[in-house]
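Hey,
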Amino acid sequence: MDSALTTVGLPVALAVVMFGLGLSLTTADFSRIAREPRAVAVALATQLVLLPLVCFGLVVALGLSPVLAVGMMLLAASPGGTTANLFSHLFRGDVALNITLTAVNSVLAVITLPLVVNFALDHFGPTGEGAVGLEFGKVAQVFAVVLVPVALGMLVRRRSAAVADRADRPVRIFSAVVLVAVIAGTILAERENVGTYLADVGLVVVLFCACSLAAGYAVPRLARVGRRQAIASAFEVGVHNSTLAITVAVSVLGSEALAVPAAVYGIAMFPLAAAAGYLITRTDATRNAVTNP
């Protein structure tokens, strides 16, 4: 990608996306953890512990190259995206829980994302990239593009909810445009290798997305979490913040190749998430029809 886009454009665009997330948050979204501890704890454990393990197993089993393996682990460590809220709303999940999980995950990602990525860089061998977890300056970059804009957005909402509400729609539209742009830019930058990358990473991306959505719903249900909360968890766990993963890959680690899995995921997750929501609602409808003929 062009250096100006890499060093300035992507971080600024992601900052606007995270600012938009902050516009929808209040301190009550964090206090909800105390009111719904089981649902929050199970979803977070699935996202932060189970998903990296699943992703690691998939990339090892399918023999991905080191650079794509690290890119997949970066994706697995990324928090849920704001699009999860939309899917949760469409399929009658607990959107308030989605907002809480997104908020908490975005905070925790400043710690967990460098840890997971640095482990992947060490395990899979040389990829030509530096470690994100051991250098303070790179951790500070992740902090700056994740937490600072969220905090500013929350401050705007606290000062004037009306201003936050008016800004919400244009920021959401901008966020969608940014996602399309960064995916297109990543694929364009790697256009000479894109066919090979898609062949190498397409299957693992689809499997990882399907596993994420399935685990996000099944694990909470096994833990006796309510159905609406499990639906929220499914989309929070299954719909990752591809923009963040791409920005860290390109702007922090300096590699378009590392961003390819996140770019492919950004395309694949929408139809897969929609299909998962349809299956969940149809399964529940069938079960209700059998139970209450």
